Amino acid sequence: MPESPNPANSPGSVEPAQKPLTAIPTLAQTATERKTVAVSSALERIRRTHPRSSRIPDKTFALLILLTGLSVFAIVVFVAWELVDKSKLSLHQFGFSFFWGRDWDPVNDQYGALPFIYGTLVSSFLALLIAVPLSIGVAVFITEMCPIRLRPIISFLVELLAAIPSVIYGLWGVFALAPLLREYVEPFLAKTLGWTGFFSGPMYGIGMLAAGIIMSIMVIPIISSITREVLTAVPQSQREAVLALGATRWEMIRMGVLRNARIGIVGGIILGLGRALGETMAVTMVIGNRAEISRSLFAPGYTMASVIANEFTEATGDLYLSALVEIGLALFLVTLIVNALARLLVWTITRGQTGRASA
Amino acid sequence: MNRALRVLFCIFTLSSGVMAQTTLNGAGASFPNPIYQKWFSEYHNLHPEVQVNYQSVGSGAGIRQVQAGTVDFGASDGPMTDEQIASSKVKVLHVPTVLGAVVPAYNIPGVSQEVKFTGEILAGIFLGKITNWSDGTIAKANPDIKFPNQNITVVHRSDGSGTSYIFTDYLSKISSDWANTTGKGTSVKWPVGVGGKGNEGVAGTIRTLPGAVGYIELIYALQNKINYGSVKNASGQFIKASLESTTAAASGVKMPADFRVSITNPPGKTAYPIASFTWLLIPTNPADKNKGKLLKDLVLWCLDSGEAMVSALSYAPLPKEVADKAKDAVKQQVK
Lengths: 359, 335
Hints:
The complex is a heterodimer of chains A (359) and B (335). Chain A has 359 residues and is mostly helical. Chain A folds into two domains: 1-50; 87-358, MetI-like fold, CATH 1.10.3720. Helix content of chain A is 71%, strand content 1%. Chain A has a two-stranded antiparallel sheet. In chain A, helix 10 (236-244) runs antiparallel to helix 11 and helix 11 (249-278) packs antiparallel against helix 14. Chain B is an alpha/beta fold and 335 residues long. In chain B, 41% of the residues lie in helices and 19% in strands. Chain B is built from 13 helices and eleven strands. In chain B, strand 1 (22-28), helix 2 and strand 2 (50-55) form a beta-alpha-beta unit. The interface between A and B is medium-sized, with 34 and 36 residues.
């Protein structure tokens, strides 16, 4: 293959194109705009100096990218096929009633997935309920209102939350959060909101509520860092324009920033939801692991990921193993459905709108 | 030139040394993992040509892998069932190695004494029939302790484990109610309570939850200095679990030829009632004769010199007669 003299491969050749640009920064220009200009002018230079560059690297590149793109498809299909194949026995035995069966009894080989599906959905929803307002608040504070010196510290702390291993969250949940919930939070909730039925019954500390709170803490860094990026991408001119119309700071953030960034924020929430649905270790340690559906959030519950992690290593019977794999299949389907619904939500929000700051 | 030759020679001798080493692969129970690792590394020091790679993937996975013949030996906290033996491609010998015990741990506000449990009390609590520490059945067994009016919260293992198997096996023998409704297994449908992951999860929940009672491995309780209660055995004695009383549990039991025996609730006067063997699963007719020979020597060594090391790691050693019987079986049955 002839060596192509394509200067786009060497970063050195892009730099001279950037130099004059950095010399003329205007206040209104955001970082993104500057980058776009830099890249397009670099491309222009290449076209001018090398009008007939070889097409072979281009084709190879296209093929490679196609392969990487298709690999995602292949992985998903492979996982789905494997899950269906390995859960055949259980699919055959229980049919679709597996998905709404409430009984999980390995000793008598009776398996139903509903308590786990319920636990996964409720704990994830609870996590989002707590994490979404908090993370958006954190992101708005960091980008819009935070004193410049505090900004890197808070950003660092938020990212630190993401770096803590989930088993540490779990231990913290057992030893610190659960007693706190049992002593103070749950009695308070039972007294004020007990009439709803969501906050009643014996208080163990561990249970669905603890799982939701732990997960929300784990999800916050994901949602807030994506939201922060999206908010930073909103052009400064938007803010200035809204302020110039006489808006207060709150109105500026609401209309000028959050409105423009909402597609990206929803994207961040979807990613956070994905994390919550699949979270295993920390949840297992605090959820109480009881395969029952109860209205009260104080009661212990169980999630799909937890039951697989808990019981797979010691499962012996063929049907038992098959049922556990089918739980995996159920988790796969639930994730698929939830993601599809979230996409639908994004689509309804953004219909007829140009995704200005959806980066 | 000379130097290059010497280097080549060195490489040759080194690689031949590596090639002469045989690796035995094992997988299974996590409960005996610390002592197995200790044994296998000691054995490797004595016999550098044998390297044992043991993975503590859980009893269930150990049984599956030895059935499929993907490992040279397996290990399990519960004996293989008749169906598992029937469906297995590989015929195995159960070799008991050490003993484990399961103890009741509790957190009762205002009670610092050692609580005495009977089988009736434990079954009642875990079935959800005894729900308060002030219950008369508990008071009767502990006349000198004043129990508070405190609700009981049951804490059990959420992960499938040999510990749960031993405990539910004991409850099944004690209470026909338990045997009929819940049964025994590494994971069961617990009538009441919350699940903690691992010994640490159960112990942690008990520690922070007033009124909680659960069961943990004796080793874990000893190593972490957790208080636990004594349990009434079949001859009416309240026995606190210790390495001696656990070994005693195995002494009074009639050992069947295939070693698949449950020793919960044994007859001995000094026996602790919630104990069990853990087994190595050794293929009796290994495909690789050389490996089979090495494995046989290894197992015999474990049952002989190995048993002397177990107490240091808080495992209960086999009674002498059981170890001797196991050695004979290995010598005769493993080809």
